[in-house]
Amino acid sequence: MTQMWADANRADPPGVAGERETLTAFLDWHRETLAVKCADLTAEQLNERAVPPSGLSLHGLVRHLAGVERWWLRIQFAGEQLPLLHYSDDDPEQDFERLDGDFAEALDTWRRECDRSREIVAGAASLDETGIRRSTGEPVTLRWVLLHLLAEYARHNGHVDLLRERLDGGVGR
User: Fold this and answer.
1) Could you say which of 5, 44, 81, 110 is the most buried, measured as most Cβ atoms within 10 Å of its Cβ?
2) Does residue 163 contact residue 50 with C-beta atoms inside 8 Å?
3) Beta carbons within 10 angstroms of residue 41's beta carbon
4) How many CB atoms sit inside 10 A of residue 47's CB?
5) pTM, rounded to two decimals
6) How confident is the model over 6-31, as a mean pLDDT?
């Protein structure tokens, strides 16, 4: 049976706003969507790969998106020298495959990465500021990074929708 859940604290992005405010509001809406759809589940459910043959789980997606936040905004855009989260050349899929550790800890790590990302975006003078794309050495604008993050969250929140519905029938926008 399908069960609808409340939108929790997700505020709709403004219909009229500047470019930065619009991009960050949509990104925050997607971030909160991830958190809402992971709420009120057991550790077993959060780790379950509920849509075979996919190996995705809610826990794995939270770990992955924490790494995405760190990679794009902290390492590539801001140039911070940090280790990667849940990734190594020897084990590139550990964010999805190794679900050791407590989900609450993974969620807290993701939230801290999101908070740092917000600080970086707020501190940028313009969406035209650039970081350096590690794979090419070419510049990349903050605008491009934010749009890339929006696409990443939108894609993965679609996965989250399927996983959550399969786990307990929960659906929502």
Assistant:
1) 110
2) yes
3) 19
4) 16
5) 0.91
6) 87
Tokens of 35: 């958190």
Tens-digit pLDDT profile for residues 80-120: 999 999 887 887 787 788 888 899 999 999 999 999 999 99
List all residues 6 or more positions away from 163 whose beta carbon is below 8 Å from its beta carbon. 48, 50, 51, 56, 57, 58, 61
Residues 117-163: pLDDT tens digits?
999 999 999 999 999 999 899 999 999 999 999 999 999 999 999 99
Tokens of 71: 């990679």
- Report the 3 state secondary structure along the chain: CCEECCCCCCCCCCCCCCHHHHHHHHHHHHHHHHHHHHCCCCHHHHHCCCCCCCCCCHHHHHHHHHHHHHHHHHHHHCCCCCCCCCCCCCCCCHHHHCCCCCHHHHHHHHHHHHHHHHHHHHHCCCCCCEEECCCCCCEEEHHHHHHHHHHHHHHHHHHHHHHHHHHHCEECC
Mean pLDDT over 45-67 rounds to 95
